[in-house]
């Protein structure tokens, strides 16, 4: 279980995260939603240790993450940032093999190679395995980064906007892969999401973040309400139900809404 | 047996064979270089002299030709390595000892000792001072990059600025120096392998070889840096440490490579690119292969420089550009894939 | 009040313009003008008399002093100021920068009639900057044997010191003939490696060092080279196995030198070059260090005399280069003889 308690983070004296608490159980997909600047990315970076929180604890299966070495942490949690590097002069296989880095000293073992090969196969990336990363399309690149995270074989995944810049089919593919992997291998994933419908469709829990604070937490149908969307996003929306998931249809921005200054 | 992992292994094998091929080529060029010279010593006698203990042939081969060849190899390795490391840690395809101004810093340090004199320990002073100023320019670059972000443009612009700063400081020495010192500095900027003996070679070798194990050990970290700082950190790389120490080590290598031989441009920039075009960006292979490509280039350039127009020597700095630039452009035009 | 002010200003401006124009005309009519061909081969119009000189080269300065025209010099290069012993009369003159990169503003401020530089240094920007301001630029080398006499003559005409120029030329040619007469017919010329200021850089045809070596009766092993100061490999020198090695060195301040140690250490370094112990010159100890003072300029004849004695001691035993040097310094330069110029 990944449990986050009372997390505070300030950047240049501006509060970015305030008293954030999240519990994530294995087998669960949790999406963090919220408007731009709500602190979604920062929260993920705090958990993985790229930035250091000012207050609060992060416990991974009961162990304090801040006391762990980076390399050991990398065996517990993996992270895929939102933007892939603009230039990445390396083959797809090598890019995915990077996920094995926490286990490799110098030469990758037979097991490392097989894990990578398995992940590539399961994600339909076999054909491009020995191509260069830079040659791939945006959707393929995103899949390769995801493959790297899977190859890392950690219990917890942190994915920042895994579907941004993807077409409809790739969005669905990627989300299905994530939730499928989580269910199959008993992992747990935290996703920072912009697309509320995708988040509702694939998440077990949704955390709605506003101005660095948790606005509400719960199952998608509990969180995705007309009132919540109005007060957090400032958008008038109607919510339908399709296949048991709430479906949000934005109508117009609320006129009297004031952007929270964060 | 897994199909993709087998293919990957084959590819790795090909990279290894490329390195072996480079070693062979380097050895071959070294043999050719060993047999060439102004004296009437034939090819056969030259090789025979390798195993003699005394005599004129022994003196020519052991005291004149071999030091030059060994130094060319060491300097080439150093420039190739330093270029690769700078490109990796700054994630910048235009980075090299020269484009970042680090070589100019080292050069300034060396010229300073040449002008002011260093007495009997001058070799050590030259090397030490070159390292000090190389380090100084690296930290300037790193500081500027910290403040303004690690963009290609910022770093290269800062590098050019630093290059100009140290070039003009060197020119200032030239301005102040006596006629003799002025000549010394002018020819220093052409680069030359003539003036090195075994003592200089051993100092340079230590400066260049000492950091190698650490750099090789960091191959994975360099690979991960190309995935971006955040990914690298998330995968367990101590990014700050690798970048800081990497710069220190690459500066040490740069200083070792140029403090006794002067300006040999271009190698540090093109060796990594040439190698990357051939075997890709995995630093476990890129580092040694790039070093070897640098060595082959410098040794070839020096051998051509002293034989083409013999007995007059074309300064090595000029020849490296003559053979390096067209070769590089050829590869650039011909390349199938996008590598930085 | 304001109106008057403007009028007065205009009046002052007008009258000063008139005076200025008058001055220019007067000078142009009073002075005669000569055309000379300088070291670059181009013709330069020089208005006489020349009253103020800025001299950027020490070689030209030495000739000027020999022509007793030292008092015309109003500006010197920075290097001159570093040798106050050798230039007692000039050491306090304003310095205008180095011989290759002077400060043009300082030169303009001194308002000289003429600036003298080398043919190739400083660059063409000197003409671009100074000529429009009415300052004449003349380029004379005084380091090439071939053009020495002609250049002294030109300088004599410009400065109105034809008499002194003739004296210097006479002395110079007499001494040169003394060597040349004996050396030219010599058949058994020793092989000589001439190393210029920088290590492993020799002096090929087109350099002063080559000319001197040949005049002194030596055979330059680089005589078939195509550039004046090429880099060579130590192995080539070893293969040529010269009988004599001449090393030029430019410490700058040999006049003030008492102890020959710096020259000795230069020689030691040459002798210690790897594998060179196999060269005849090194084995026989025939490695000589020569200071740049007697390597270029009118004093090259002294350098030549030293070389001639080193190459052919039995033929030139009548020469006394030191005495020659003393005579030159005392008679033409008006300073007493001192310093260390050669080793051994």
Architecture blueprint of SSEs:
The complex is a heterotrimer of chains A (262), B (340) and C (344).
Chain A: E1 2-11, E2 14-24, E3 29-33, H1 40-48, E4 55-60, E5 63-64, H2 70-73, E6 77-80, H3 92-97, H4 110-122, H5 138-151, E7 156-160, H6 168-185, E8 188-192, H7 196-202, E9 205-210, E10 213-218, H8 220-223, H9 226-233, E11 235-242, E12 245-253
Parallel strand pairs in A: 3-8, 3-9, 6-7, 7-8
Antiparallel strand pairs in A: 1-2, 1-4, 4-5, 9-10, 11-12
Chain B: H1 3-35, H2 43-49, H3 56-89, H4 102-116, H5 122-148, H6 152-176, H7 179-190, H8 198-209, H9 212-217, H10 219-225, H11 229-234, H12 239-258, H13 267-279, H14 283-307, E1 312-313, H15 316-334
Helix pairs in contact in B: 1-2, 1-3, 1-14, 2-3, 3-8, 3-12, 3-13, 3-14, 4-5, 4-6, 4-7, 4-12, 5-6, 5-12, 6-7, 8-12, 10-14, 13-14, 13-15, 14-15
Chain C: H1 2-30, E1 33-37, E2 43-47, E3 53-55, H2 58-66, E4 73-75, H3 78-81, H4 104-110, E5 114-117, H5 125-130, E6 136-139, H6 145-159, H7 162-183, E7 191-195, H8 208-215, E8 219-220, E9 231-232, H9 234-240, E10 244-249, H10 261-271, H11 280-283, E11 287-291, H12 300-311, H13 321-333, E12 342-343
CATH class category label of the largest domain in chain C: Alpha Beta
Task: Count the DSSP helices of chain C.
Answer: 13
Strand content of chain C: 5-15%
Q: Enumerate the spans of chain A where pLDDT stays under 50 for 5 or more consecutive residues.
A: none
Fraction of residues in H or I helices of chain A:
25-40%
């Amino acid at each position: 279980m990944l449990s986050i308690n009372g997390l505070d983070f300030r950047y240049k004296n501006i509060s970015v995260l305030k008293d954030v608490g999240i519990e994530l159980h294995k087998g669960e997909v949790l999406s963090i939603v919220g408007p731009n600047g709500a602190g979604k990315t920062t929260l993920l970076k705090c958990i993985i240790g790229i930035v250091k929180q000012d207050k609060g604890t992060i416990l991974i299966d009961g162990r304090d993450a801040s006391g762990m070495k980076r390399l050991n942490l990398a065996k517990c949690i993996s992270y895929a940032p939102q933007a892939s590097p603009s230039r990445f002069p390396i083959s797809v296989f090598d890019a995915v093999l990077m996920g094995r880095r926490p286990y490799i000293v110098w030469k990758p073992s037979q097991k490392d190679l097989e894990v990578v090969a398995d992940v590539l196969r399961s994600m339909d990336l076999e054909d491009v395995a020995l191509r260069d990363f830079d040659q791939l399309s945006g959707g393929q690149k995103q899949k390769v980064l995801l493959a790297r995270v899977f190859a890392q074989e950690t219990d917890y995944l942190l994915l920042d906007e895994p579907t941004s810049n993807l077409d409809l089919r790739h969005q669905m593919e990627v989300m299905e892969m994530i939730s499928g992997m989580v269910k199959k291998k008993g992992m747990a994933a935290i996703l920072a999401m912009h697309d509320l419908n995708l988040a509702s469709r694939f998440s077990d829990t949704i955390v709605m973040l506003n101005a660095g604070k948790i606005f509400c937490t719960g199952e998608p149908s509990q969180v995705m309400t007309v009132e919540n969307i109005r007060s957090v996003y400032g958008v008038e929306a109607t919510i339908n139900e399709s296949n048991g998931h709430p479906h949000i249809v934005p109508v117009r921005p609320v006129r009297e809404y004031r952007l929270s200054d964060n | 047996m897994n199909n993709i992992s087998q293919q990957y292994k084959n590819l790795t094998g090909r990279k290894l064979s490329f390195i072996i091929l480079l070693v062979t080529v380097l050895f071959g060029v070294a043999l050719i270089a060993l047999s060439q010279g102004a004296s009437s010593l034939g090819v056969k006698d030259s090789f025979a002299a390798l195993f003699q203990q005394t005599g004129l042939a022994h003196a020519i081969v052991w005291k004149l030709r071999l030091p030059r060849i060994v130094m060319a190899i060491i300097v080439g390795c150093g420039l190739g390595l330093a270029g690769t490391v700078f490109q990796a840690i700054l994630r910048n395809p235009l980075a090299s000892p020269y484009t970042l101004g680090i070589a100019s810093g080292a050069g300034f340090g060396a010229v300073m000792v040449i002008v002011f004199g260093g007495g009997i320990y001058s070799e050590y002073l030259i090397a030490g001072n070159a390292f000090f100023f190389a380090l100084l320019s690296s930290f300037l670059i790193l500081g500027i990059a910290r403040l303004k972000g690690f963009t290609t443009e910022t770093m290269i612009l800062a590098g050019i600025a630093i290059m100009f700063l140290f070039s003009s400081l060197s020119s200032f020495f030239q301005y102040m120096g006596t006629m003799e010192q002025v000549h010394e500095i002018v020819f220093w900027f052409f680069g030359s392998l003539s003036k090195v003996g075994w003592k200089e070679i051993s100092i340079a070798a230590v400066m260049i070889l000492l950091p190698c194990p650490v750099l090789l050990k960091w191959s994975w970290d360099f690979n991960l840096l190309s995935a971006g700082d955040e990914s690298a950190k998330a995968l367990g790389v101590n990014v700050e440490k690798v970048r800081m120490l990497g710069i220190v080590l690459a500066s040490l290598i740069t200083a070792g490579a140029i403090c006794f031989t002067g300006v040999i441009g271009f190698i540090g920039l093109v060796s990594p690119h040439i190698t990357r075009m051939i075997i890709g960006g995995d630093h476990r292979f890129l580092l040694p292969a790039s070093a070897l490509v640098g060595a082959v280039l410098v040794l070839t350039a020096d051998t051509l420089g002293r034989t083409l127009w013999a007995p007059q020597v074309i300064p090595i700095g000029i020849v490296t550009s003559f053979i390096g630039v067209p070769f590089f452009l050829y590869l650039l035009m011909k390349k199938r894939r996008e590598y930085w | 009040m304001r109106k008057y002010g403007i009028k007065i200003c205009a009046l002052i401006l007008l009258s000063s313009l008139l005076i200025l124009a008058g001055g220019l005309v007067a000078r142009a009519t009073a002075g005669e003008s000569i055309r000379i061909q300088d070291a670059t081969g181009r013709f330069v119009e020089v208005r006489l008399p020349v009253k103020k000189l800025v001299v950027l080269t020490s070689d030209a300065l030495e000739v000027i002093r020999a022509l007793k025209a030292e008092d015309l010099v109003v500006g010197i290069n920075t290097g001159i100021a570093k040798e106050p012993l050798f230039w007692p009369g000039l050491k306090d003159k304003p310095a205008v920068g180095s011989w290759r990169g002077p400060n043009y503003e300082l030169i303009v401020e001194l308002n000289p009639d003429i600036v003298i530089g080398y043919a190739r240094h400083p660059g063409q920007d000197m003409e671009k900057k100074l000529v429009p301001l009415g300052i004449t630029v003349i380029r004379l080398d005084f380091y090439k044997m071939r053009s020495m006499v002609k250049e002294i003559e030109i300088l004599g005409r410009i400065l109105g010191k034809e008499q002194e120029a003739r004296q210097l030329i006479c002395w110079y040619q007499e001494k040169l003939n003394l060597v040349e007469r004996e050396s030219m017919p010599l058949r058994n010329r020793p092989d000589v490696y001439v190393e210029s200021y920088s290590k492993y850089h020799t002096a090929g045809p087109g350099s002063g060092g080559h000319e001197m070596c040949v005049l002194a009766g030596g055979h330059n092993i680089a005589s078939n080279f195509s550039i004046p100061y090429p880099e060579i490999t130590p192995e080539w020198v070893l293969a040529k196995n010269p009988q004599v090695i001449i090393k030029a060195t430019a410490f700058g301040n040999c006049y003030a030198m008492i102890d020959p140690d710096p020259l000795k250490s230069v020689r030691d370094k040459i002798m210690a070059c790897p594998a060179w112990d196999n060269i005849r010159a090194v084995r026989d100890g025939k490695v000589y260090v020569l200071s740049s003072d007697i390597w270029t300029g009118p004093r090259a004849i002294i350098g030549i005399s030293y070389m001639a004695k080193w190459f052919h001691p039995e033929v030139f035993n009548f020469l006394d280069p030191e005495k020659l040097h003393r005579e030159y310094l005392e008679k033409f330069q008006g300073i007493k003889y001192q310093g260390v110029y050669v080793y051994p």
